[in-house]
Amino acid sequence: MIQQIDHIGIAVKSLDATIPYYRDALGLGEPHIEEVPTQKVRVAMFDVAGVHIELLEPTSPESPIAKAIEKKGEGIHHIAFKTNDIGANIQKAKDAEIIVLNDPPVPGAHNTQVSFLHPKCTFGVLTEFCQHPCSGDCGCQH
Ligand code: CO
User: How far apart are the CA of 78 and the centre of ligand 1, in A?
Assistant: First the structure.
């Protein structure tokens, strides 16, 4: 079930413009950067003791992140919980009549499987379940 906060997703217009703040002003070091085609974003990940700050830059105007920035501006976009059984978490949410946006889960960054819950059912917080391929039980830094 849920093991810890995996990451906090932050919508930004430009990774290049934002990375220096996290890397240099906060001193979080070099981020891991990758593209996530399913979400139409480029992601920069900073590891903060196993919890990641995930900067999300839209790669297309169709990206959910582009739409979020249009609507609310840059800023915190979602919170992701790491789980070792995403199917069970999805079922539990559905049993509680929460709208699950991805069932079955879709591929996220870092070979994860992810599923989002609709913010209208979660008191305004876009919520993600995130399962790593190792199930998160091996003690790796994922
Ligand atoms: Co995420």
Answer: 7
pTM of the model: 0.88
Mean pLDDT (the chain, rounded): 93
| Gap from CA of 79 to ligand 1 centroid (Å) | 7
All domains of the chain, ordered by start, with CATH? 2-131 (3.10.180.10)
Residue 13: which residues within 8 A CB-CB, separation 6 or more?
57, 58, 69, 74
12: left (phi over 0), alpha (psi -120 to 50) or beta: beta
Q: Please tell me the distance between residue 128's alpha carbon and the centre of ligand 1 in angstroms.
A: 6
Please say if the pLDDT value at position 132 is more than 70.
Answer: yes
